[in-house]
Amino acid sequence: MSFQNRLTIIKKIKLSPKKANFILRELRGKKYSDALLLLKFLPYRACQPLKKSLCSVAQEVVVWSFFNAKNLYVKIAFANHGSAKKKISTKITWES
């Protein structure tokens, strides 16, 4: 994968894909600096893990290539349904 198209995956966060996609829809096509500002001032709990992921990818691209953070933008952003926790059911039986 080239540094022009980078991929990040966030795992094990308690967040519904519907809520994440609601925010990610606003970020698509935005420049990196504009996306950070949006994530900073949007009043949703889902913004914090998304902001961490965006900063992580930008830092990786800046460190490993000659790109500047000013030239980066969000091309594609989406959230899928991850693994679900298995619910444990307990049954108590009384015998005499």
**What's the structural domain tally?**
1
Number of strands: 0
- Enumerate how many helices there are, as a single number: 3
Task: Report the CATH architecture.
Answer: Alpha-Beta Complex
Structural class: mainly alpha
Radius of gyration: 19 Å
Q: How does the overall form come out from the CA principal axes? A: elongated
Strand content: under 5%
Question: Can you write the helix and strand succession as a string?
Answer: HHH
Q: Please tell me the overall pLDDT.
A: 81
**Would you identify the regions where 5 or more consecutive residues have pLDDT less than 50?**
none
Cα(first) to Cα(last) distance is 66 Å
CATH class category: Alpha Beta
Largest sheet: none
The CATH superfamily turns out to be Ribosomal protein L22/L17
Reported by name, the CATH topology is Ribosomal Protein L22, Chain A
Helical fraction equals: 40-55%
